[in-house]
């Protein structure tokens, strides 16, 4: 992508194809899935079969080897169509850790099957109940015994476990008091959930505000083959952090898709709804918030493209990826509020989809990274303010 190109004109064929696929999963589909508290299996299956979720897997492993910019357009279009990429984004980016840090044998073993959809790798287990964002203090341990590791501990909020075959796990392999830096001594493993569940791993679903399959995990002497260790023992946190820029940019794109969806719905309704003998959108008190929300989504989208362009050029993009995520999550949340307000009471009716998307987009203020942690990153790493934790 060149700096003088209009980024919104990029990848028209991808936009068109994703839109057309998503059109088969309409409002009625998402309402049915939500009512049944089900996983949108046929939607994820259709995206997989069309190859969209293997966008970032190189062609040598059966993926389409697209750029992150292109992948962000895919995520944006899913959410812009009214869908929820939260159900499937893991399948696009969790494998990145394996791709960047796995051995050739591991990549040959898993990537082609992930690309074809034969294997789902859409879970990543990092968060723990007692340590939260303070990742280096996590308490789950993996202790080597011969050709395997024994894993013990607990995780919380681990998504899509019941719809994954493989899960990435971050666990401590060297106790905190025996490492030089607190970020050392953590390791990443591929857990084959088909072997693990019921044999050392217990999965307990958490009912939550959105229809998002997420779980508590309990590890009790779970055996993980030593062959499933990714990269070097003790360097796992670095490997996970390496993947975060891509994740931030893709999540920003989802927020942008949501933002456009809310703005479009709000504008359509404000044009059509007549109260006091005129369209409500004729009142500046109604139209200005929609205009402001649109402006903020547009601005966030530019930062997303900047971050993605740097990422695709192999250049540092931590600052831009974090800023894009914060701007986009704020813009989509503002647009959600405006859209709900514009619809008055009807915004609360499930059949309009607004209350569902409102709840879904609210999540991005908290997960996969909370707004405060992005502010702290920018304060410390960009503005060189003193470390706060
Ligand atoms: C639906 C859902 C799905 C999720 N899926 C996954 C998943 O698949 N895998 C996974 O590993 N995790 C997942 N998470 C967890 C998510 O990443 C965490 O909830 C998030 O990172 C925040 O951690 P926490 O909930 O422990 O909050 P805490 O760390 O307890 O923080 C609580 C609040 O305090 C603020 N805070 C904490 N410390 C500071 C500080 N020093 N300065 C300023 N503010 C601070 C935080 O910003 C936050 O707002 C998911 C969460 C949800 C809700």
Would you kindly provide a brief summary of this structure?
Helix content is about 45%, strand content about 15%. By secondary structure, the protein is α+β, with helices and mostly antiparallel strands. Strands 1-4-5-8 form a four-stranded mixed beta sheet.
Radius of gyration: 21 Å
Number of strands: 10
Total separate domains: 3
Level-2 CATH architecture of the largest domain:
Up-down Bundle
Q: Supply the CATH class of the largest domain.
A: Mainly Alpha
Structural class: alpha+beta
CATH topology annotation of the largest domain:
Butyryl-CoA Dehydrogenase, subunit A, domain 3
Helix content: 40-55%
User: Widest sheet: strand order?
Assistant: 1-4-5-8
Terminal CA distance: 38 Å
Report the average pLDDT across residues.
97
Protein name: Acyl-CoA dehydrogenase
Domain Acyl-CoA oxidase/dehydrogenase middle: 123-221
Domain Acyl-CoA dehydrogenase/oxidase N-terminal: 13-118
Keywords: FAD, Flavoprotein, Oxidoreductase
């Amino acid at each position: 992508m060149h700096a003088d190109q209009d980024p919104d004109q990029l990848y028209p064929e991808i936009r068109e194809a994703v839109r057309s696929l998503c059109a088969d999963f309409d409002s009625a589909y998402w309402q049915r899935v939500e009512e049944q508290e089900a996983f949108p299996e046929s939607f994820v299956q259709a995206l997989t079969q069309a190859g969209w979720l293997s966008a970032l897997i190189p062609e040598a492993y059966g993926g389409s080897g697209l750029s992150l910019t292109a992948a962000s357009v895919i995520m944006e279009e899913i959410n812009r169509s009214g869908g929820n990429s939260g159900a499937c984004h893991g399948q696009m980016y969790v494998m990145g850790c394996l791709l960047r840090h796995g051995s050739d044998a591991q990549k040959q073993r898993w990537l082609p099957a992930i690309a074809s959809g034969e294997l789902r790798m859409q879970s990543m287990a990092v968060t723990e109940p007692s340590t939260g964002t303070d990742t280096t203090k996590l308490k789950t341990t993996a202790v080597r015994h011969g050709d395997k590791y024994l894993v013990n501990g607990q995780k919380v909020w681990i998504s899509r476990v019941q719809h994954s075959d493989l899960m990435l796990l971050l666990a401590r392999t060297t106790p905190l008091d025996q490492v030089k830096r607190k970020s050392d001594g953590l390791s990443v493993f591929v857990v084959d959930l088909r072997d693990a569940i019921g044999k050392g791993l217990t999965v307990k679903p958490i009912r939550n505000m959105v229809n998002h399959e997420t779980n508590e995990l309990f590890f009790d002497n779970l055996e993980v083959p030593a062959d499933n260790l990714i990269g070097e023992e003790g360097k796992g946190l670095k490997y996970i952090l390496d993947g975060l820029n891509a994740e931030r940019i893709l999540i920003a794109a989802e927020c942008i898709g949501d933002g456009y969806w809310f703005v479009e719905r709000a504008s359509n309704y404000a044009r059509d709804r007549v109260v006091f003998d005129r369209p409500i959108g004729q009142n500046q008190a109604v139209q200005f918030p929609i205009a402001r929300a649109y402006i903020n989504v547009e601005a966030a989208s530019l930062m997303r493209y900047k971050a993605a362009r740097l990422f695709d050029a192999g250049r540092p993009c931590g600052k831009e990826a974090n800023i894009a995520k914060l701007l986009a999550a704020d813009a989509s949340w503002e647009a959600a509020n405006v859209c709900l307000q514009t619809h008055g009471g009807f915004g609360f009716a499930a059949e309009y989809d607004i209350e569902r998307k409102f709840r879904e987009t609210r999540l991005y203020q908290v997960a996969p990274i909370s707004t405060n942690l992005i502010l702290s990153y920018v304060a410390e790493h960009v503005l060189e303010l003193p470390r706060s934790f």
